[in-house]
Design a protein that fits this description.
The chain is mostly beta strands. Helices cover 8% and strands 30% of the residues. The chain has one domain. The strands form four sheets. An eight-stranded mixed β-sheet has the order 5-12-13-14-11-10-9-8. Strands 1-4 form a two-stranded antiparallel sheet. A two-stranded antiparallel ribbon has the order 2-3.
C-alpha cells in the first residue's frame, strides 16, 4: 500500500490522506519520494511500507494539550497569542502551520489543510530546522509539557525508547516510519463529533516518521486522519 501525505497533510506526511473526516489532503501530480529528511521536512512524502493494524495512542498525538484530530489551528492560535501562520510549501494547496518554540530552541509545528478543521499533523524539531524552511517560530513563555507528546516523544530521547513508544521493531537505520490503520470506532484520538456518520468504508490512519542523530531523536512528524 502506498499512502500520500502532503506533508503534513499531513501538510506533510507519509500517507494517502491525512486530514480529518471532514476534509481530505491534497495530492501533488508528481509521485513524491518514500522518504523526507530534516532539510525537507515540509515536503510531501509517502509511506511505501504496508500499514499495520492498530493506531497510535491519543497521548502520542497530543502536544501542549492540543490533539491531532480534535484541536484546530484556531485553537492553537488562541493558545499562543502572537504566533504566526505560514504555508508549509509554495504549492497552491499547501497546508497551513503554526510554529512555536521554547526557551531551549526546540519547536513544534501544528498543521492542517483548513484553519477550521482539526490539526492533522504535528512536527517536532529544532526551531532553526523549521525557520530555514520558511516558518516563523516565536518563543513562547510557556509550552505546556514542553516540545513533547504527552507520551514522551521528544527531541533527544534515546532511539530504543522512541521505537518502543511507537511499537517499531528494532531498526539499525537512522530514520523510521510507521503507519497504522483501523476503524474509526477503534481510534481513541477521534471524538464522536469527528467520526464519519455516512456509512461504512472509512479508515482511521495514524503514524509517525522521523530521524535520529547519534542515537537520539533529531526530528519527528506525527499524523492522523480519516479517509475512505
Amino acid at each position: 500500500m502506498i499512502k500520500l501525505f502532503p506533508v503534513l497533510v499531513i501538510g506533510l506526511v507519509f500517507l494517502c490522506s491525512i486530514s480529518g473526516a471532514q476534509s481530505t489532503p491534497t495530492r501533488s501530480q508528481a509521485t513524491p519520494p518514500c522518504t523526507v529528511t530534516e532539510d525537507s521536512i515540509f515536503n510531501e512524502a509517502r509511506i511505501c511500507a504496508k500499514s499495520r493494524d492498530g493506531s497510535l495512542r491519543k497521548a502520542d498525538l497530543t502536544v501542549a494539550g492540543f490533539v491531532i484530530g480534535q484541536s484546530t489551528l484556531e485553537d492553537v492560535g488562541r493558545g499562543f497569542p502572537g504566533s504566526h501562520q505560514f504555508r508549509l510549501t509554495k504549492e497552491r494547496e499547501a497546508s497551513t502551520g503554526i510554529c512555536v518554540r521554547n526557551k531551549s530552541g526546540d519547536a513544534v509545528v501544528f498543521s492542517s489543510g483548513d484553519l477550521a478543521e482539526p490539526v492533522d499533523s504535528i512536527f517536532i524539531a529544532r526551531a532553526e530546522t523549521f525557520e530555514k524552511q520558511g516558518a516563523k517560530c516565536p518563543k513562547v513563555a510557556t509550552l505546556p509539557g514542553g516540545a513533547s507528546t504527552k507520551s514522551g516523544i521528544r527531541l533527544g530521547v534515546e532511539k530504543e525508547r522512541i521505537l518502543a513508544l511507537l511499537h517499531i521493531h528494532q531498526s539499525h537505520e537512522p530514520s523510521f516510519a510507521v503507519d497504522y490503520t483501523t476503524s474509526p470506532e477503534k481510534a481513541l484520538w477521534l471524538t464522536e463529533k469527528s467520526k464519519p456518520k455516512d456509512g461504512k468504508g472509512w479508515v482511521a490512519m495514524s503514524g509517525a516518521y522521523g530521524g535520529f542523530r547519534n542515537g537520539r531523536l533529531r526530528w519527528v512528524v506525527l499524523y492522523a486522519g480519516v479517509s475512505n
